[in-house]
Design goal:
A hairpin with a 2-residue loop joins strand 2 (52-54) and strand 3. Helix 1 (3-14) crosses helix 3. A 3-stranded antiparallel beta sheet has the order 1-3-2. The longest helix is centred in the C-terminal third of the chain and has 13 residues, at 83-95. It has one domain: Arc Repressor Mutant, subunit A, CATH 1.10.10. It is built from 5 helices and 3 strands; from the N terminus they run αβααββαα. It is mainly alpha-helical. The chain is globular and about 55 Å long. This is Mga helix-turn-helix domain-containing protein.
Length: 99
Amino acid sequence: MNHFDLSFLKYLQDNNPLGIEHAVQRFGKTLSTLKRTMKELNELLPANVQLHQDNQCITTRIGYSDYIDFLQRVQFNRYLTTAEERVQDLFVALCLRDV
């Protein structure tokens, strides 16, 4: 689970159904990367809101409350930070060190 996974799910929740070509262009990822992300998300999503590829679209029934529930269920140790997030975290920690 990483920042892209969460961004992708949120974007799909807001823009359902999502054309595959649009998703590839929007996120700069290959179709195989999108499918891998969908598989990883589906392992954590309830069956009724899982992501599906229908022809040239990615669909889901996930709503805002389902998305919030999903975020609350994600365990922190399953989230992989990006290098940028780690640098930001270090910067904040250093700034607050003497406060």
